Amino acid sequence: MAILELPAYVVANAAVFYQIDHFRMALNLNNAFNKTYWVGGFNYARLFPGTPRNFMLSVGYSF
C-alpha cells in the first residue's frame, strides 16, 4: 500500500481596508497567484484541491 504524500505549498493572501468614523470597508484577495494546491485526500484518486483565487468585500459598522 502506497503512502499518500502531498507536496508542500505556500498561498499568498492580501487585504486592504478603509475606515471612516464607524464604517469600515475591506477587500481581501485569497490565493493571489492562483496556485493549485492540495489540502488533503484519502488516496491519489481522491484529492481535495484548495480554493482558487477569490475576492471578498465586506462592509461593517461598529456602534
TrEMBL record:
Principal place of residence: membrane
Domain of life of the native organism: Bacteria
Compartments where located: Cell outer membrane
Keyword Transmembrane in record: yes
Keywords: Cell outer membrane, Ion transport, Iron, Iron transport, Membrane, Receptor, Signal, Transmembrane, Transmembrane beta strand, Transport
Membrane topology: Multi-pass membrane protein
Membrane-spanning parts: none
Residue ranges the record marks as coiled coil: none
InterPro entries in the cross-refs: TonB-dep_rcpt-like
Family classification: Belongs to the TonB-dependent receptor family.
Protein name in the entry: TonB-dependent receptor
Organism: Epilithonimonas ginsengisoli
